[in-house]
Design brief:
By secondary structure, the protein is an alpha+beta fold. The protein contains 2 helices and 3 strands. It has a single domain, classed as Fe-S cluster assembly (FSCA) (GMP Synthetase, Chain A, domain 3, 2-Layer Sandwich).
């Protein structure tokens, strides 16, 4: 399951060689938060032409299972 299917990526902006990623976590105390941020930065840097990554964590709006893809909801037993 990836962060896009989980609905954690809210927005991605590309300006030249800079990518800005607005994302959330399932909760403020998410134990995987640091790992998620590291992986998102690493994978974003792998996109051809991206040289700089700006990650912005937000909880506005708060994440809910409604943000998940239909496949993720099915696999995780939501809905």
């Amino acid at each position: 399951m990836d962060v896009v299917d989980l609905g954690l990526v809210y927005e991605v902006e590309l300006e030249g060689s800079k990518a800005k990623v607005l994302y959330s976590l399932t909760s403020m105390g998410c134990p995987a938060g640091q790992l998620i941020a590291q992986d998102m930065e690493r994978v974003t840097r792998e996109v051809p032409g991206v040289e700089e990554v700006d990650l912005e964590l937000t909880f506005d709006p708060p994440w809910t299972p409604d943000r998940m893809s239909e496949d993720a909801k099915f696999i995780l037993g939501f809905g």
